[in-house]
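Please fill in the sequence for the structure shown.

STRUCTURE ENCODING:
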């Protein structure tokens, strides 16, 4: 700086005038740019609002400066300068920089920058969205933009969700919300408005889908069901629910004795216990108990009785009587009780009668043939018939049986023989007397006892039969049958029975047992249960004292106690068809002079077709071939 005086400056001393003049002269020779005299602070301004601040610049040359302001992103912030005052206005959320420039007349300039933040503000609700009520299948549209605004003026995105999508379906197209009712219920719809910065506002409103009662569809036609049968009636086709709700069905019969009903899902089963006519009421209910009902008729018709199988023809001997259980040959499809009646084409040949409700008795009067017709009638008079032939034959004579002696074998003379059988070349023998009863295996050729088991002293051994690999041995008065292993004779258990036990044999299916009377008992070989009785007759007279037995084919051979006879019995009719006189064998036996030493013991050998015969306390066993004379 030169100390010059510049005269002529008003209010200045001569010296000052010189100095200023020198300074201007120097500036013209060496111009310098403006400089900032103060930094500008960062600003925060909301969209739609403004802020002002004062810029500070100095020009070393004293030039007059022009102040201007510019923004890095006018979409966020706009800026303007008036003199030293800078104004910034928020446009939309974001951050931008503002540059303030001071320029001298020579174009030299200085810049000062500061940051301006336009904060994002959350959208807000406008009013309240109103509740809706829709029927299932109906829909409604709501413009969400009517219920939200953004303080920053930004465009909003919308989302909507239902609290139960099974009840209500929600879709959006722009700001327009469409809701469609799927099922009954109450749902809350939440609508969210979101600005570009992710800030959001929500509103919720309720949508009610009311329940509506089920409805009937057409009418269920009358059903015909036969007694004892069951038919299914579909229900789903005859009801509907306007809301699409699943329906639960119930059914009630006005008369369960005619039509019993049960519901399974959407079907009702109708069972007919008895004939008649009634009605069935079916109710369809939704989950909230609203219902619809249909009533239909069920008819259970009467049906004619029907024959079951065919009554076989029968042959009866003069003087004999046979029976037929008619209930086994007729049935009523409705379960009605049947009344039976019978007639005979020739009442001089047979006499017929019904007793006990259903037992047909046929009595043979004279030789010939007749047709017996049986009729079964239900309670309403419907009937069915069966006819069968009956032949009445003259009674055949009793055959006289003879024998040929094959050989004589040794036998334990101390054996009080009560039961005898042969199997695979070995005798199995049951002996009696209290304190001396046994069951034995005996060698045929020598009579040697191979194995034995004694009974308790209070048991009197009687008849013996083989069932598979078991032996069954009777006792006289104890009411016990001992079951033994056939190989070891070891005990396997016992059966109990009523009365006395004498003889026993097995025909491969049933056991036959005597008790000293004229009646044989047929028993189950596994349980010893009584299955039936056979009365034994010889020329129409009862045969008493039936003792030791042997089953051979269709016949049973029996000792007659205290006689020398062996009788052959038809096991189906009980008629004696043959008699063998064993008196010659008894005389040849060398038996002791003891009244108890009677004929008792018959065993049939299925391998040779011969019989073995002995008696109580006999020292010998006879093998014989039996034939008709």
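FILLED IN BY: designer on duty
SEQUENCE:
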């Amino acid at each position: 700086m030169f100390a010059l005086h510049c005269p002529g400056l008003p209010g200045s001393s001569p010296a000052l005038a010189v100095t200023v003049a020198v300074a201007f002269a120097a500036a013209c020779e060496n111009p310098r740019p403006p400089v900032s005299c103060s930094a500008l602070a960062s600003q925060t301004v909301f969209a739609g609002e403004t802020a002002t601040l004062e810029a500070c610049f100095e020009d070393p040359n004293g030039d007059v400066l022009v102040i201007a302001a510019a923004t890095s992103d006018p979409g966020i912030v706009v800026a303007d300068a008036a003199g030293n005052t800078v104004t910034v206005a928020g446009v939309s959320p974001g951050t931008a920089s503002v540059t303030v420039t001071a320029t001298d007349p020579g174009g030299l300039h200085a810049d000062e920058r500061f940051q301006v933040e336009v904060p994002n503000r959350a959208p807000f609700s406008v009013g309240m969205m109103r509740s809706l009520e829709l029927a299932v299948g109906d829909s409604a549209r709501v413009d969400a933009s009517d219920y939200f605004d953004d303080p920053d003026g930004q465009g909003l995105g919308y989302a909507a969700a239902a609290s139960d999508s099974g009840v209500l379906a929600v879709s959006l197209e722009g700001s327009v919300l469409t809701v469609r009712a799927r099922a009954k219920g109450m749902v809350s719809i939440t609508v969210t408005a979101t600005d570009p910065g992710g800030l959001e506002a929500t509103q919720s409103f309720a949508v009610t889908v009311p329940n509506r009662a089920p409805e009937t569809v057409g009418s269920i036609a009358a059903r015909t069901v036969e007694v004892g049968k069951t038919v299914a009636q579909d229900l789903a086709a005859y009801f509907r629910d306007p809301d699409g709700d699943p329906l639960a069905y119930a059914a009630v019969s006005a008369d369960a004795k005619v039509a019993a009903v049960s519901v399974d899902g959407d079907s009702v089963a109708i069972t007919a216990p008895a004939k008649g006519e009634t009605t069935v009421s079916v109710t369809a209910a939704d989950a909230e108990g609203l219902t619809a009902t249909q009533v239909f008729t069920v008819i259970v018709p009467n049906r004619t009785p029907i024959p079951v199988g065919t009554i076989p023809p029968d042959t009866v001997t003069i003087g004999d009587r046979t029976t037929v259980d008619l209930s086994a040959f007729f049935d009523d499809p409705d379960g009605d009780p049947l009344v039976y009646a019978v007639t005979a084409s020739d009442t001089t040949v047979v006499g017929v009668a019904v007793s006990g409700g259903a037992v047909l008795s046929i009595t043979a009067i004279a030789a010939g043939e007749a047709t017996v017709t049986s009729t079964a009638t239900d309670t309403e008079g419907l009937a069915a018939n069966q006819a069968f032939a009956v032949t009445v034959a003259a009674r055949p004579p009793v055959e006289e049986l003879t024998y040929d002696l094959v050989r004589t074998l040794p036998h334990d003379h101390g054996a009080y023989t009560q039961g005898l059988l042969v199997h695979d070349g070995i005798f199995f023998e049951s002996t009696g007397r209290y304190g001396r009863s046994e069951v034995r295996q005996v060698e045929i050729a020598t009579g040697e006892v191979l194995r034995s088991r004694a009974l308790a002293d209070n048991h009197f051994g009687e008849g013996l039969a083989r069932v598979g690999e078991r032996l069954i041995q009777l006792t006289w008065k104890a009411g016990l049958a001992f079951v033994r292993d056939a190989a070891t004779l070891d005990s396997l258990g016992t059966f109990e029975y009523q009365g006395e036990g004498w003889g026993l044999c097995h025909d491969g299916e049933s056991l036959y047992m005597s008790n000293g009377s004229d009646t044989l008992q047929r028993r189950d070989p596994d349980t010893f249960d009584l299955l039936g009785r056979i009365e034994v007759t010889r020329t129409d007279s009862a045969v008493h004292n039936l003792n030791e037995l042997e089953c051979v084919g269709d016949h049973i051979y029996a000792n007659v106690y205290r006689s020398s006879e062996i009788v052959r019995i038809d096991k189906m009719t009980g008629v004696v068809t043959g008699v063998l006189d064993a008196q010659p064998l008894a005389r040849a036996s060398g038996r002791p002079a003891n009244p108890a030493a009677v004929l008792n013991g018959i065993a049939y050998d299925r391998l040779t077709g011969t019989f073995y015969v002995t008696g109580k306390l006999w020292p010998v066993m006879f093998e014989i071939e039996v034939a008709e004379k």
